[in-house]
């Protein structure tokens, strides 16, 4: 059992409500971790302000300044290493990670997705769910592999789709579950209770 908080680096592109949920859970003693750095590919991301407000180092890296995705991801990896990051958490990060980054951080990158994977991977998951006509959607926290939202699943929560749902109302209801699940998954990881076995994630019971 570790005695120091797990060191997180959170990658963001926008609003940052999941980042906020993680920060709040840490502050509230519900997640034994510390956010060492928040990295955004968007200079104006509200998530950067949330980081600063919490006293967390906020870094903007501009993809335009890099020749390709691999060199941009190398720059991210350098920032994470400088801050001693043990677990990288994607929280509304809108870029695909290069295979080199995923390989270097294998088993150490999490993502939250607003659907019950493997249904509705990729962009606009709530719109996809409504268009398909499912009666239940939800939220997923999973490890990141080379694919798009294909990595081993840690936690999921179901959310009913209502007759009168719009993309926005469904997204809002799913977001409540994202905010609950993400800090919970990080807590389980920090407690050393998450084990990847092939495609499956085994969650060990608390000691
Ligand atoms: C969330 O719905 C997340 O599942 C998806 O993008 C959204 C990010 O929201 N990947 P926020 O930036 O955390 O508020």
Task: Describe this structure as you would to a colleague.
It is a single chain. The chain has 207 residues and is an alpha/beta fold. The protein has a single domain, classed as Formyl transferase, N-terminal domain (Rossmann fold). It has six helices and nine strands, in the order βαβαβαβαβαββαββ. The strands form two sheets. It has a seven-stranded mixed beta sheet with strand order 3-2-1-4-5-6-7, sandwiched between helices. The chain has a two-stranded antiparallel ribbon with strand order 8-9. Helix 1 packs across helix 6 (167-190). The chain is globular. It starts with 5 loop residues before the first strand and ends with a strand. The model has no long low-confidence stretch (mean pLDDT 97). 5-O-phosphono-beta-D-ribofuranosylamine (GRF) is lined by residues 14-18, 91-92, 112-114, 175, 178.
